[in-house]
Amino acid sequence: xxxxxTGDGHPSTDGTADVTYWGGYADAAHLQFxxxxxxxxxxxxxxxxxxxxxxxQALAGALNAWEGDEQGRGVMVALDEHTDFxxxxxxxxxxxxxxxxxxxxGIPILGITWDSGDHSMRHRGERLFGQVCPVTLRPGIEGxxxxxxxxxxxxxxxxxxx
Length: 162
Known about the structure:
alpha+beta; two-stranded antiparallel ribbon; 20% helix
């Protein structure tokens, strides 16, 4: 059930996390620390997936403290604990529309990785604003499924214009 959803700020649900890093000194950091090449929405980062949480935290700390040059510049580092939100975001990394499906409490959930301009700011798309959009699934051709849903068009209101 959707009430079991774990989002940002929730601790890892399985005791694991992902660590990724990128930036101008990523190649030098790779020589020092290693890590696999990971595609995230068309960009390449380096890192490790599914690490025990303690190991991930130690590795992220070491990467954050690492200095790639004499001016103290290093790399950008992300430590993503496995929450439902991160799992669906990760499932969308290689999809051109940034969508991913996961299972939450035994129920398949489709997630769309919109940014704040597309989602909560523009459409007031969060649960708080009552913007849960119904989805219709219909059998499609060749065993595929067609999904349709409607998101109300953007219409700025007087209270939320810049």
